[in-house]
């Protein structure tokens, strides 16, 4: 009890740990011939043996100090002697204190080990006199318990969804009749039937609008093509009424006619040797019918024939959008829906599903991953997914997600936690400070306090 250890402070910064403490000898009364070795050490709770002994401080009485100096000069060493970190001669009755500092690589066991202070006394004849060990800290390295930011998404009052699809049917030239066994139409009918029936037969959905838009390729008369595209779009609508029972009142049909914009995009991405000439015709000739003649004039119609064969057919298509409302789901229902058709869930429903699992489960992270994938630009989805990443130990993945956001307190807080977990204390502190400045005066402030104290 004559030696006091004060101001014990342990700090971890990345891969290293620093121990600082003050050893007060003010009350120590030493016999002149004794030598005292003072050493911090680590041991596991409940164990007797230490797992790591730090360099000791040597304190000797006056006579022993003189003897030790002479022995050192002569190269003589005793069996028990070690190279001390520091050595002192004790002056009984005087105030003496030792500032002890040690930096070491962090090892995982340090988060469980306790810091003890070992005192070993050797007498005048080098006999062992006394050893004592007292616990200073448990655990030696206290891992901060950071608070993550999860955001509860707002409830979506009415869930409205819209799915866009393209149907590319083959028609007899200048005709609008839909013929199932014409060319590859059977496969296209099967694809359309599958898409539409999945919506029509789903009792969780209520169709609000069926939008159909007809497009034609650019060859031929502009007005004739527009009228033909309209007739073909209406033929498709009539098929949906007869085959799937869609109400006529739900249809909105439009004819866009010749799809010059689609052609321009396709040619721009192509390796067509005369690409620049084709694009120049489209850009500088406003009359659609006049463009045909100019395209034919390029290299004696070779380019035009390639356009007819390769680039025009995909432009003859019908695009359709099915808009519908989705009923709300309970958590139990949503847990099943997210496995098969997650787009029917709102962010709020997904959040409640995630929270129904433990944070350690794979389902917990999977749900937030799905939400971020379906809502890639939604800050709430990004922030919640980043928190799940951190819970799962995927710290860099969280940072990568959050880099999309700026001036967001919750994002800064989670990024700070990720950096702290990676051992980058400086960046973590910077992020927590930004989070506090952006308005998070609770979680980020608490996290910051754990790093700067």
Defining traits:
OmpA-like, 60s Ribosomal Protein L30, Chain: A, alpha+beta, 4-stranded mixed β-sheet, single chain, 453 residues, TPR repeat, 3 domains
Describe the structure.
It comes from Porphyromonas levii. Residues 192-258 form the OmpA-like domain. This is DUF3868 domain-containing protein. Keywords: TPR repeat. TPR repeats lie at residues 409-442. By secondary structure, the protein is of the alpha+beta class. The chain folds into three domains: 4-137, Immunoglobulin-like (Sandwich), CATH 2.60.40; 159-324, 60s Ribosomal Protein L30, Chain: A (2-Layer Sandwich); 341-452, Serine Threonine Protein Phosphatase 5, Tetratricopeptide repeat, CATH 1.25.40.10. Helix content is 40%, strand content 23%. The protein has 15 helices and 13 strands. It has helices spanning 62-74, 185-200, 222-244, 260-268, 275-284, 288-297, 302-311, 331-340, 347-355, 362-374, 379-391, 395-402, 409-421, 425-437, 443-452; strands spanning 4-13, 16-24, 35-43, 52-53, 57-60, 86-89, 97-105, 114-122, 128-137, 159-167, 205-216, 251-258, 317-326. The strands form three sheets. Strands 3, 4, 5, 6, 8 and 9 form a six-stranded mixed beta sheet that branches. A hairpin with an 8-residue loop joins strand 3 (35-43) and strand 4 (52-53). The longest helix is centred in the middle third of the chain and has 23 residues, at 222-244. It is elongated, with a radius of gyration of 39 Å. The mean pLDDT is 91.
